[in-house]
Write a sequence for this structure.
């Protein structure tokens, strides 16, 4: 009965707010402003998450490319290559953006750069021999560190030597996959698996998690305070007995 009464009160409050919507102004509802700030809060703490997401996307595309063979259709090959190139370029841009932020925002600016350097080393190979081989396939490094593709060069290479072309690309993709896995593993520059496996997180990860939890707690307390003030104001302005009683019930529940 209590739950039912509260539900009916919530419904009455909702009906009352809907009836007053046209008379309300965004500036008169401080809760809406707080909710807007709350919605933007995660973006301020997502630097590490952006790096991890970019690495995971690159790994997924690299794994797909590593399965190609000489029997792969040229169109499919080009699509897989473009997937790796685009995800690599996205990682390159993300690292550049994150590295320009204050040191505390990403747990240390050196970590994203270290992760990108590891991927670049994997792409080049142990002795940089793969750089020339990839260039002949149309994958060229640009001045900003990004990659570009030449579809004509890729198609010609694959038509002339499908086995050699597919082997070169598959090996490069395999190295990228391995490098990303190391970076995402516990102890890596973008390590996340320590939290998945239940082992102790790094100090930077623990600090970030603690700060986020504290900010979320403060935001929730502020939201509750403003919500109570807002409901009290609505109660004072409510004319009908049913609506006033509903607001009173909701206010009492909100303070529990």
């Amino acid at each position: 009965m209590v739950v039912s009464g509260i539900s009916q009160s919530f419904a009455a409050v909702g009906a009352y707010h809907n009836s007053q919507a046209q008379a309300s102004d965004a500036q008169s509802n401080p809760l809406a402003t707080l909710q807007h700030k709350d919605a933007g809060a995660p973006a301020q703490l997502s630097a590490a998450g952006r790096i991890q997401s970019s690495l995971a996307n690159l790994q997924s595309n690299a794994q797909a490319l590593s399965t190609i063979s000489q029997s792969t259709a040229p169109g499919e090959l080009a699509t897989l290559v473009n997937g790796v190139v685009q995800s690599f370029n996205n990682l390159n841009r993300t690292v550049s953006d994150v590295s320009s932020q204050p040191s505390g925002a990403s747990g240390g600016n050196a970590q994203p750069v270290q992760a990108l350097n590891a991927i670049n080393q994997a792409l080049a190979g142990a002795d940089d021999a793969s750089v020339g081989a990839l260039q002949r396939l149309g994958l060229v490094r640009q001045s900003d560190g990004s990659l570009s593709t030449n579809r004509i060069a890729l198609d010609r290479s694959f038509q002339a030597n499908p086995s050699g072309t597919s082997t070169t690309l598959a090996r490069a993709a395999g190295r990228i996959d391995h490098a990303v896995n190391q970076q995402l593993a516990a102890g890596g520059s973008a390590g996340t698996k320590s939290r998945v496996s239940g082992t102790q997180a790094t100090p930077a990860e623990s600090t970030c998690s603690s700060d986020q939890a504290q900010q979320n707690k403060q935001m929730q307390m502020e939201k509750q305070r403003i919500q109570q003030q807002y409901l009290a104001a609505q109660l004072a302005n409510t004319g009908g007995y049913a609506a006033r009683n509903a607001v009173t019930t909701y206010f009492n529940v909100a303070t529990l």
